[in-house]
Design a protein that fits this description.
Blueprint (H helix, E strand, L loop, with lengths): L9 H15 L7 H8 L6 H5 L5 E2 L5 E2 L7 E7 L6 E6 L5 E6 L3 H9 L11 H7 L1 E4 L2 H18 L9 H10 L7
Antiparallel strand pairs: 1-3, 2-3, 3-4, 4-5, 5-6
Helix pairs in contact: 6-7
Length: 182
Amino acid sequence: MARRHPGLRPERVAKLNDLAGDLAARSLSLPQDFVTFQTSTNLYGSLDAVSVTFCWTDISPPLPSPVEPGASSCGFLRDQQDSVIWYLYLRTSGEAFVVHSHLDYEHEVEARRAGEETETDRYDATAQTAAILWCAPSFEEFAHRFWIENRLWHAVNGGNPSRLEPQLRSYLHHYAPPEASA
């Protein structure tokens, strides 16, 4: 009988294992920070919980990059109105970073398969490049900034910024003029 690890969510482990298998067939792999976050009982859902724009976790299957042969992306977070979707961008070199777009590439792929019109011309490299914006050099950095910035928004817009934890206060003072973070 297999032992269960108390810190892991078995259903998430199964989902990430399926995704990792699909990516391996394309010579791509998920970064460990992403796997740990998405399968950990105490981390999974924490971005959803803190989001001021009601973002929610939604992991897509591997999606072929419209701008780089061999690369793929996996959507992992979207805001409630789908005005921004964050993707883990994966290269065959092993490099992985976070990008975002207003385009739902999962829907774009499904529409193309069905022979339907899509929001963009997949073969227009200029339009595709303009629609995909770099966000963070790693999933861990993205998650850290997202969590901090959303916590700060709550504190500044209805809470009490003077009662912030030292880490949050330091971050706020680094990016905001002193009068804005008082």
